[in-house]
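Morning. Coffee machine broken again, so started the prediction first thing and wrote up yesterday's gels while waiting. Chain of 89 residues, entered below exactly as on the submission form.
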Amino acid sequence: MTEKRATAKRIATMLCAVAVLFFFGHAVGGAGGYLAGQGRPDVILRGTLGAIIFAALSFFFWKSYLRDISILDEHVGANCVRPPDEPAP
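Came back before lunch.
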């Protein structure tokens, strides 16, 4: 795994988190419409489903990112040169 791939997954996680906020905002807005007498159950449903889907994607990307950086950490740790008097981590 390369650092670019790990960074791309981290950015994808961030964009999915922003999408969750966007869709959750739509769901709250649809529910808030009932206060003005113009509730929209379709907007609530779309917002909730979109938020759930993007939250699941965000968790998937984050878990994959953590797996990639652990592999990178093992790879870098195996190839690093330490002075003889420095203990291994």
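The chain has a mean pLDDT of 85. Going to sketch it on the whiteboard this afternoon.
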